[in-house]
Design brief:
Strand 16, helix 5 and strand 17 form a beta-alpha-beta unit. The chain has a 6-stranded antiparallel sheet, covered by helices on one side. Strands 17-16-15-18-19 form a 5-stranded parallel sheet. It has a 4-stranded antiparallel sheet with strand order 1-4-3-2. By secondary structure, it is an alpha+beta fold. It contains 9 helices and 19 strands. The longest helix is centred in the last third of the chain and has 15 residues. Helices cover 22% and strands 25% of the residues. The chain has 3 domains: 61 residues, no CATH class; 119 residues, Translation factors (Elongation Factor Tu (Ef-tu), domain 3); 149 residues, Nucleotide-binding domain of ferredoxin-NADP reductase (FNR) module (Rossmann fold). Its EC number is 1.18.1.2. It is an enzyme of class 1 (oxidoreductase). It catalyses: 2 reduced [2Fe-2S]-[ferredoxin] + NADP(+) + H(+) = 2 oxidized [2Fe-2S]-[ferredoxin] + NADPH. Belongs to the ferredoxin--NADP reductase type 1 family.
Length: 377
């Protein structure tokens, strides 16, 4: 049955924060432009809605009949990356967002402070898993007297946001500080401008955002059987949280068909510095055949040589399996400190040599096939 409403009444449903339409099994409508007398966006009826503008000025709302699947921000087909959102907002004309919440997500013995920050974009800055937002911190750079420049942060939520409305974004940010040996304390003059601004933010504070940017870290969703090997240090975990939520936490088209292995490697200093571990453990319980996680705790674990356990050492423990999965079409992702890369490539080079293969040729092959995804700093 169609429910008809006036343009004014329907538009109210499209505003960020508006209550979901309560007719049938429907999700809130987001991001639909109602200024054209034509279909603007369609939803497939699996828990979403379809909305159309008629020449008469009335708007038809068609209740979905599915199982509440989260699908109102999908491409058609869902794996098509042709029209992925890119650079919707730029440095000269950023989007002004507001902070919803800032939460410390590490324990008391963690080396440094890391925060999970949720902000509202009102459905106007859609993004995909694996992309980044730019944040322009307020203030002037004392070195050149010019306004502070943009800093990029990998997005830590799926395209639907932690609240599943499609109007919020989450970032995982570590507060950058500098320990001064003379002061025997953090030197406030040398702290990271943007990371401290974000970690100190309060609900309602305004943020200037650019983006979304990046296509390097996208998931190859056309293949439901692909293995995803995700390697991170610290806050490099952010894009993988967006992957894992899409695959296992939310009811998405790709998550419903995914049959591969998502394998997460995370390197941090100690157990208190682990990020989102409670979420990973829940996924492990529900999907033990499709999800795997390995930690490298540099201050608590030893590698095979008796030294500190870094992320490259943990991956090395599974060198043959990682190499084999890559040779069978897996995609490998790296996000975090670039210092992890030499150890990992050396390890894979060793496996390659044992197999009688030329490592440079093998790496070139993986890159040409789009299996090698690197976003390090």
């Amino acid at each position: 049955m169609l429910a008809l409403a006036t343009a004014a009444a329907f538009t109210a449903y499209l505003q960020p924060g508006a209550a979901p339409i309560v007719q049938g099994r429907m999700s809130r409508v987001q991001g639909v432009s109602m200024d054209e007398n034509a279909w603007r966006r369609s939803y497939d009826g699996k828990g979403g809605v379809a909305a159309a503008a008629a020449p008469s000025g009335e708007y038809a709302i068609v209740p979905g009949t599915g199982k509440g699947t989260q699908n109102f921000l999908e491409a058609d087909p869902y794996w098509d990356q042709t029209n992925i959102p890119l650079n919707t907002y730029k440095n000269k004309a950023p989007f002004v967002s507001k902070v919803i919440s800032v939460k410390r997500i590490v324990g008391p013995q963690a080396t440094g402070e890391t925060c999970h920050i949720i902000m509202n974009h009102g459905g106007k800055m859609p993004y995909w898993e694996g992309q980044s937002y730019g944040v322009i911190p307020p203030g002037i750079n004392p070195k050149n007297g010019k306004p502070n420049t943009v800093r990029l942060y990998s997005i830590a939520s799926s395209r639907y946001g932690d609240d599943m409305t499609g109007t919020t974004t989450s970032l995982c940010v570590r507060r950058a500080t500098y320990w001064c040996p003379e002061l025997k304390a953090d030197d406030p003059a040398k702290k990271g401008v943007c990371s401290n601004f974000l970690c100190d933010a309060k609900p309602g504070d305004e943020l200037m955002l650019t983006g979304p940017s990046g296509k390097v870290m996208l998931i190859p969703e056309k293949d439901p059987n692909v293995d995803l090997i995700m390697v991170a240090t610290g806050t490099g975990i952010a894009p993988y949280r967006s992957f894992i939520r899409r695959l296992f936490v939310e009811k998405t088209p790709y998550g419903e068909v995914y049959k591969g292995l998502a394998w997460l490697f995370l390197g941090v200093a100690n157990a208190d510095a682990l990020l989102y571990d409670d979420e990973w453990q829940e996924v492990l319980k529900k999907y033990p055949k499709n999800f795997k996680v390995d930690y490298a705790l540099s201050r608590e674990q030893k590698n095979v040589d008796g030294g500190k356990m870094y992320i490259q050492d943990k991956v090395k423990e599974y060198a043959d399996e990682v190499f084999t999965r890559m040779d069978n079409g897996a995609h490998m992702y790296f996000c975090g400190l670039k210092g992890m890369m030499p150890g990992i490539t050396e390890m894979l080079e060793e496996v390659s040599s044992k197999k009688g293969l030329v490592w440079e040729d093998k790496l070139k092959e993986w890159k040409e096939k789009g299996q090698w995804h690197v976003e390090v700093y």
